[in-house]
Every structure is written in structure tokens, then in C-alpha cells.
């Protein structure tokens, strides 16, 4: 089941630099594991923003929430979720 | 070069039904040709909306505008374009 | 899988009154069938609005889109979909 | 009398961790007591958000305000209240 | 139980003038009857707008919806409902 | 001359608790004096919000600004002022 | 008593051209009479908009509403009213 | 050349009180000098807001920016600039 | 004196096709004359929109309004004007 | 390939003054190098704002993001990117 998720990151300027670097590294590892598992199918940088647009392919709403809630940067993000379905013009629709 | 494009369709209720059906059919053929050409790489329906979220991979801004401007449904759409770049956490980034 | 859906209805004033009445009746029958089937679990009127707030329990995103797209009043609605998950404070969570 | 209430929680990052944990625990107990009492009839997590969508069934406006004002997390919430009524298509309407 | 209601009226310019006049007259009578009944406790014109701000004192949400839904100008209005409670600084609170 | 005023209060979480309590007490006394004087004719709590909706009956704009500017909580408020006039449907209009 | 008023004019494209010309002429005469009377103290065109920013000096709210409601272009306008007071830095404040 | 400028002031609550008082005094002197010079032609308080609406009559855009950028309160303001032109209904237009 | 102007065009679908074509042609000639005169210094298409972003270099506000008001497509446009000044980082600033 | 970029700068008031001055100086040098390189083709100050409107001419989206992400003031900016294409009325279009 597909979802588009826009994540805008806003880390406070006074966050401890070491904690900041560590959180960003953990976030990257977390994201890459989910990409390898096939649940986080796309991640793009939005040009000029500390933001990404991602596509998730997950079992259900519960699983998507679990993934997002546990993002290491979640406390510094605003997140927007858009449920997707197959488009009738998609050539993959057969 | 990648762009996310959100298209919201709003066909007037009083449009001639034949013209409506014909425009929607032409739109589908137009989209599918661009999908086969590799420029329109994803098209998803937004759940509960007469809208799609699409990803384009085009040569440049000029080409993206040419594609969108010539959409048969363009006169009935509002369109939002978001330029994308590779995300540092993307496993495809190597 | 649960979704909250807000539907705002805006039927044009110049719609043929017979067609209007018929569409509203078909909408009611359509909604009630889905309620009996257990997919449309709640429907509430928003006070002072030609709107409803509904809760759906469906198999997946595809099914939710199919239900909403085929609403007889869909061409006159604006629709907002919110995916829901179990809340950790819900006493039903055990 | 039914109300939909959307609560968005935004706990400051610099809140003392012990106070934070304690407040969240008190909030949970407070919510579950009202659920058992039948006044807080539904609570759902909004996917990807530190938010919930809840349905309250209360005596009147005064009681709803009393419940919300005394939420342990109230100082960190923004709250949106929507009064609901029975929908004519509700099969429970008889 | 008190509610503030803001009503913005937007009658289409091409409405039949007789129907327009009649609807406005019926609306006035409808409002004045509810004022005399004690349910529509205040009605003020918003300066420079075809709008009013009103205060209702009604039994419950159902009754408020019934009143608003049956406003002769309802099809031409956008309506915003705000539930009110007694303020602790109100000298009438004793 | 009548005005509706919506006041949203947002006291910073780190305000000294004693100052906070004192400011709220002064605000209450200030409001009640103006109520007794007949200038602050209504004050209602907005359900679920740290907000009030008030009606003022004052000599002129200057007086209204003087009252609002001197509210003890003014530095922590956002304020929205709506000038009102008599509505032609008001039964008090004679 | 001073008010700033922003008026945005949106005359429908299908309005009868004669009625359009006549309404604009009546509006001009109406405005100029009020300017000569000293109630409509400033009128400026907003650059690039079919809009004006005006300053009114009137007896009270009732009079301002009477002036605005009777504008010949009122049915085609959206109007925003801002009550003004003397600024403490105004050199005219003495 | 005329411009309307809306200035909303938001001085942080934790600003040193002496610096605060001094900045406000400097702002007043700065504004009054420009009023005497004929460049800052009107300044009004917006009722219920820490805001002013002002009219400037300046040589060009560069000069307006220079004036606004050097406002002592500029770091604490949000500013909105609207270019104005003579209105065809202005009786001063001859 | 420089201004950025964003123009969004929205020609009604039911406009007579001949009038439509003629208006667009007149608009083009009008724009190109002003470009040759050096007042309309840049015009860019906004990708995916029936919109342009333009830069004007004009004598004053009056002249900018005269140019915009007389655009053949003005009745079908919404227009947003932003006054510009020289930026201190501009290498042309010397 | 052209892009319009609006940058709004919001440096926290409590930033160390030396760091502030240094960051602004580095930003200026960074911008001027890119201007000399022909990638940052225009930079204008928005009148009355700590903002600029800029035009970039870059190889692709990746390069634009690289430029913006490395702006010394990027952590204190909100950035809005608009892809541009040649306008059919541009006299340079031949």
C-alpha cells in the first residue's frame, strides 16, 4: 500500500552539535535499512529545502505510523501523509 | 532531472459529455506515451481526490513546461511543481 | 484499516431539482449499504455545514478510493482523507 | 452530545524529561478514565503526527470545556472542536 | 448552551429578483421568531460585510443544526460555528 | 458602539509561576471592573481554547484601543477586532 | 473616528456593459460626494489591482456600515475594515 | 510616490527592559523626524494590535527601503508594503 | 525603479474563441512594445502554470499601474506586485 | 536553466554578534563569487523585508540545491524555488 510522505526538518539551532550529528547519522541508517527492506521505496530531496518527499510501500496504516513515529528526527519534523492508489492511466495497470 | 507534480482536475459540470469523455481519453493516451518514453516515470491517484501525484524525469525546465502545457486536461487543472534532487540517504546514491 | 474522511458538499444552485433529489437519494442508499457492510463505520453531520465527518474501515487505500470515487455526490464534494492508527491510550488497545 | 476534537501535541524539546514522562503518563490515565466513563468514546492516532482525533459524548459545552481544559498536556496542545449531529443517512437513525 | 455563529451571505447576482426579495423576507421572519423564542439571543451586522455574528442559546447540537439547516438563506451562506462556555471572569458567574 | 473581540492567550511555559498567577488575577479584576462599568458587555470562553470571545460597547475606537492595550495579558495575546452594527433583522431594532 | 477600508472589486465579465459603465459612474459620484462631505478622507488605487485603500472619518460604526452597504459596486466587492486610533508617535498628537 | 506600510511589532518578552524602552524611544524620534520631513505622511495605530498603518511619500523604492531597514524596531517587526497610485475617483485628481 | 510582478491568467472556458485568440495576440504585441521600450525588462513563464514572472523598470508607481491596468488580459488576471531595491550583495552595486 | 528563488532571512536575535557579522560577510562573498561565475544572475532586495528575490541560471536541479544548501545563511532562511521557462512573448525568443 503506497503513501507519499513529505518531511520538513527543523532542527533547533541550539541543539548540541554532537547530538545533532549523531541523530542525523542514525536517521540515515534507519532510512537506508527500510529502503533495503523495500518499505521506503523512494526518497528525494526537495530543492532548496531541508525536506524530503518519500514514497512508502507498507502493509497498513499501523506500520506506516510505526515507521514515522520512530524516525530519529521525528521530534524536529513536520510530516504530511498522502494515501495513494493506482492511477487508471498508469501503464503498469495493464 | 526529477520533478514532483501534483495535478488537481476540476472539469466544469456543464462541459459537453462527449467532449469530456474525449478529453479524458486523449489525456490517458498522452500520459501513457510519455510513460513509455520514460519521461513520466510515476503516476499515482491521490485517494479520495480527482488528483494525481506524478514524477517526471526530463531534460530541463523547458521540456517539463512543454509537457504540462500540452496536457489535454491542462485548462481544467491546477498544477504544482516541485523540483527534486538526489537525497544523501538514498541507497542508490552509492 | 481506519480513515477519517471529511466531505463538504456543494451542489450548484442551478442543478435540475429532479436530478438533485435523485442524486441525494442514491447517495443515501449507497452510504447505507456500505454501513451495513461494515466499511462505513460512522457518519456524522457537521453542525451548521452541508458536510459530514465519517470513519471508514477498509481493506486498503485502493478500496477507500473506490468507495469515495463512486459516491453519487462525488462531483460536488471536496474530500479530505486522514489515515488513522490505534492510539496507545485507547482502552481497547489492551 | 457529540463532538469531534483534534488535538495536536507539541511538547517543547527542553522540557525536563521526568516531567515529560510523568505528564504523558497522567494524560493516558486521565484519558482512559474518561473512556471508561463513556464520555471519551473514540481516540485514534493520526498517522505520522503527534496528534489524535477523538469523539466525545458529553452533557453540554461546559462539560466538554472542563474535560479539555484539564488535560495534563493541554498547555502543549492546539485543539480544534467540531460539534456533530446525527446524519440523515446514518442507519442508526432508524 | 451557547454558540457563536458567523454567517456570510453570498446570493448569486443572477438569482431571480423576486425570489431574492422573498427569501430575504422569509429569512427575517424566521430569525425574528427564533429571537422571540429566546433561542437566537443576539444578531449583529458585521460592518462592511453581508454577514452577521449571532449568539444562539439552544438545547443541544441537534437543535442548533436544525435551526441553521433551515435558514432560508442557508444555500447561499457559509457558516462557522464556535461552541461557547461560561468564562471564569464573567461577573455573572457569581 | 459595539465590537466583537476574540482574544487568544498564549502565556510562555517558562514565565515565572508567581508572575503568571498575579497577571491572571489582575486580568480578571480588570475585566470585571469594565463589565461593571458596562463597557465589556459579554465575555465567553471558547470551548477547548485558552481564548475568549467578548463584546464591547464603547464610546469610540480610541477607547476600545485603550482598554485592549492595557489588558494585563495583552503581551501574551493575539487579538482580533470586528466592528459591529445593528442588524436589520434584530427585533430590538423596532 | 477613523477606519482603513480595503475594497477589492470583481465585476463579473458577463455583466451588461451599459449597466457596468453606469454602476462605475454612480460609484464615482457617490465616492466624490462623501469626499466633499469629509467622511471619505483618502482614496488610493492599489498598484496593479482593481482595488482601493481608503480612509474614512465617520461618526460611528453604524455610519460606516451605511456608507459601505450603499456603495453601487458593493455587490461586486470584497471589503476589509480596520478600525484605527491615534498613534503615540504621531506628531499631530501634540 | 505613495506607499501604504503595515508594521506589526513583536518585541520578545525577554528583551532587556532598558534596551526595550530605549529602542521604543529612538523609534519614536526617528518616526517623528521623518514626519516633519514630509516622508512619513500618516501613522495610525491599528485598534487592539501592536501595529501601525502608515503612508509614506518618498522619492523611490530605494528610499522607502532605506527608511524601513533603519527603523530601530525593524528586527522585531514584520512589514508589508503596498504601492499606491492616484485613484480616478479622488476629488484631488482634478 | 524595479518591481517584480507575478501575473496568473485565468481566461474563462466559455470566452468566445476568436476574442480569446485576439486578446492573447494583442497582449503579446503590448508586452513586446514595452520590452523594446525598456520598461518590461524580463518576462519568464512559470513552469506548469498559465503565469509569468516579470521585472519592470519604470518611472514610478503611477506608470506601473498604467501599464498593468491596460494589459489586454488584465480582466482575467490576478496580479501581485513586489517593489524591489538594490541588494547590498549585488556585484553591480560597486 | 532558470529558477526564481525567494529567500527570507530570520537570524535569531540572540545569535552571537561576531558570528552574525561573520556569517553575513561570508554570505556576501559566496553570493558575489556565484554572480561572477554567471550562476546567480540577479539579486534584488525586497523593499521593507530582510529578503531577496534572485534569479539563478544553473546546469540542473542538483546544482541549484548544492548552491542553496551551502548558503552561509541557509540555517536561518526560508527558501521558495520557482522553475522558469522562456515566455512566448519574450522578444529574446526570436
From TrEMBL, chains A, B, C, D, E, F, G, H, I, J:
Keywords: Aromatic hydrocarbons catabolism, Isomerase. Residues 1-90 form the Muconolactone isomerase domain. GO terms for biological process: beta-ketoadipate pathway. Its EC number is 5.3.3.4. InterPro entries: Dimeric_a/b-barrel (IPR011008), MLI_dom (IPR026029), Muconolactone_d_Isoase (IPR003464). One of its GO terms (molecular function) is muconolactone delta-isomerase activity. It catalyses: (S)-muconolactone = (4,5-dihydro-5-oxofuran-2-yl)-acetate. Pathway: Aromatic compound metabolism; beta-ketoadipate pathway; 5-oxo-4,5-dihydro-2-furylacetate from catechol: step 3/3. Pfam families: MIase. It comes from the Bacteria. Homodecamer. Belongs to the muconolactone Delta-isomerase family. This is Muconolactone Delta-isomerase. It comes from Intrasporangium chromatireducens Q5-1.
